[in-house]
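$ fold --in a.seq
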Amino acid sequence: MRMINRAASFFLLIITCALAVSCATAPRSVPAASPKPSDKAPAVQSPAQTPAPQAKPSETPSAQSPPTKANDQNELVRKGSISVTEAFYKQTLTDIRNLIGTLNTIIANEDFETWLTYLTPQYKQTFSNPDTLSSLSDMPLLQKHDVQLHSLQDYFLYVVVPSRSDARVDDIDFLSRNHVRAIAIISGQRYILYDLQLVNGSWKIGVS
């Protein structure tokens, strides 16, 4: 039971999405990513507007100066549970996309040992738990391919590898400044790819 054939990988991708949704539920709020109870964003909140200065008698009214780029970057946007500046949102989104690109390579290479370095202790504990692994093994498509998960490495090979080796991040939701969810948008629906936590300055895969 080392590797699943290509057709099985396709089916496991589907199951992973299904499991991911059950992990975080609420489709409009974002289902969870990977069959991990692994893994949804409000609208933009307008910042307080500063009244435009009145034109002096010698000035022609109208033509208000457009906001500067610096002001745009300081504008607050509502992303997930909190509001952050546009600049902070864009920088964090870039950081997360870079991280996911690195993870895609690690996962595609089936590099389990390196993948472990990107996990929080809580994540390792959750997906090493025999009860969690047994529950995931009961999923119909895993049973169809006679896959039984007995370890975190099994979970990596038979669930993570088929479903996360080519992940794409479309957006992020903030639970806090140090806790975000990487979101994929598929057919207009928001799906959680990863629950990520900032630990000692580095983003790690966590659980909610």
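$ fold --in b.seq
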Amino acid sequence: MDNIEQNLEQLKERALLRLDTIENKPELEKWYTEYLGRKGEFNRLISDLSQLPRIKRRVIGEAANLAKQALEQAYKAHNEKLRLAALQRRIEAEHVDVTLPGRPVDIGRLHLTTQTLRQIYAIFAEMGFQVFDAPEVETDENNFQLLNIPLGHPARDMWSTFYTTTEGVLLRTHTSPGQIRAMRRYCPEPLRVILPGKCYRYEQVTARSEFMFFQVEGLAIGRRITMADLKGVLINFCRQMFGTKRQVRFRCSHFPFTEPSAEVDIDCIICGGLGCAICKHTGWLEILGCGMVHPSVLTNGGYDPNIFSGYAFGMGPERIAMLLHRIDDIRYFYSNDPRFLTQFG
């Protein structure tokens, strides 16, 4: 009995000494298998315990349990020690200096075109206009024919149209087809709407033109509406958008869907009307086109031109933004260059 107890003690001491030299998990698992595994030294040592007398078996069994518990505890303690050492090495390898300032997170902002559109919405909302959405994919009938531009009409040369593979379907070249949709929606009631949205033209991209751009169309239909109403609305808009001291002038022009028609200019916001490169030394900047709705267009929209009259106007929000912020190239709006876009937060 004394011999078995002595061997147990020697085995425990030998195992503990070897355990202290282990520096990684694979060696630790190997140690466990060698000493405490099912076929390990500890089990081999007590394999003949059942052959001993009952009293000796009980005493040696208690000694064996104490020795095994001591080794199990040492194994767990050493396993935790190796885990903490590995964690420390990882922390040191992946060290981050928390005293450094954090990287700033960019905050999203509205695109300059969206900002300008919202300014336009707000100004016309105060004058009783509501936003009316119209589709970007249109029919030739709405885009041209019902706006007094029949097939073969020379005015079609003004628009370089993107046609689709479906006959009679195209990408709208202007927001004016929304006039027909709005009139047919509200007829025979009066209406006052603005129709914002993207337009498409097959044109060369330059500093002053893009193949895709925004427009804002305006339309008012009612009884006894005159050119004076149109002038009052647009003068108020120009002065709210560009400054209360702006001078506004109307020049005769021609659009197939309005009669009479006019172009609207303001005195140059850069030189104050004295003449500069921006206004081509004329002292004036063109802002938008407008006119009284042509009787044929009123009829196509469902209104009786003998009872109703109306006015329409159209403007480009990018052109307005270019004037307000002195931007010299419309391509900046769609180039997605943060150096440009972040200036207008």
